[in-house]
Design a protein that fits this description.
Distance between the termini: 49 Å
Mean pLDDT: 94
Structural class: alpha/beta
Helix content: 40-55%
Oligomer: single chain
């Protein structure tokens, strides 16, 4: 009865696509049936050898090697701007999620929106998510409090927001998709941030080159397209436009990787990568 329940649970979690959990169960059962001698160890070696030759093993090794390779970029070890403080503009679902994964990795975070009510909603979103982790024992209360203390909420009415932003190394804008609004934010932020600061826009559709038009430092403007919900979705599209400096791309890549994202650098073309791939599928579904 016990082994039947274990097999059902493994089948449910793997959908029968991974042979190794079933081989492990087999080894445990064989070991219990042959407690003395070395037969159980011989059986385990034989099972491991068989698993190492499967297509699943080859595929998983390929995924591991690919994921490891994607943690490195081609711009050189010293290309990225050192980042300690990250400012996030927009405290909605996307902005709050970006702030959450950023604070979780030890960065100082500024979370800014138009008023205190909007900022409060963003802070509550993070607090609620971390409270759930504490309840499930995936995070200690100390870690939860440490993460929250790393986030400073700011609004347009805060007299000190410009002083706080003067120390930002990276600004990630996550407001709604309106190009004139994004351009106004670029102009405003460039007037208060240091020259080395990178400005990243979280857009899924607007060309990065268009957002950078008229900017004082267009070479430090780049796209960082997160997917919602940010704490759960691993992919991050990094989109340099034609005039983006390598240091900006390297900085976005290193911050994204530290946030736990799988970073892909894509061209500044319609749809970038994911939406460009998704489009034909949606057209086919409608047909």
């Amino acid at each position: 009865m016990m082994w039947q329940q274990i097999n059902k649970l493994v089948q449910k979690n793997t959908n029968g696509n991974y042979p190794s959990p079933f081989a492990i169960i087999d080894c445990v059962k064989y070991g219990l049936a042959h407690p003395s001698g070395n037969d159980k160890f011989k059986h385990e070696r034989e099972q491991f050898t068989k698993l190492a030759q499967t297509n699943e093993s080859e595929a998983l090794i390929g995924i591991f090697d690919g994921m490891t390779a994607m943690k490195k970029h081609q711009y050189g070890e010293d290309a990225a701007v050192p980042v300690k403080k990250v400012a996030v503009i927009g405290a909605g679902l996307m902005g709050a999620g970006i702030a959450q994964v950023t604070a979780l990795k030890g960065y100082e975070v500024l979370l800014k929106d138009r008023d205190d009510v909007a900022v409060g909603r963003g802070l509550s979103y993070m607090s609620d998510n971390w409270d759930k982790k504490v309840k499930r024992r995936r995070m200690t209360k100390f870690e939860r409090n440490k993460n929250m203390s790393a986030v400073v909420g700011l609004s347009d009415d805060s007299e000190s927001w410009k002083k706080h932003f003067s120390g930002a190394d990276l600004v990630i804008e996550a407001v709604f998709e309106e190009i004139n609004l994004k351009r106004r934010i670029v102009e405003e932020i460039e007037s208060v941030t240091p020259d080395h600061c990178i400005f990243a826009t979280n857009t899924s559709a607007i060309p990065i080159a268009d957002i950078a038009q008229g900017a004082r430092r267009p070479e430090r403007i780049i796209g960082m397209h997160y997917f919602s919900p940010v704490p759960s979705m691993p992919l991050l599209e990094i989109i340099p436009h034609g005039g983006t400096a390598d240091c900006a791309t390297a900085t976005a890549f290193e911050v994204g990787t530290k946030q736990g994202k799988t970073c892909i650098v894509v061209k500044d073309v319609p749809g970038f990568y994911v939406n460009r791939c998704l489009g034909p599928f949606l057209v086919e579904v409608r047909m």
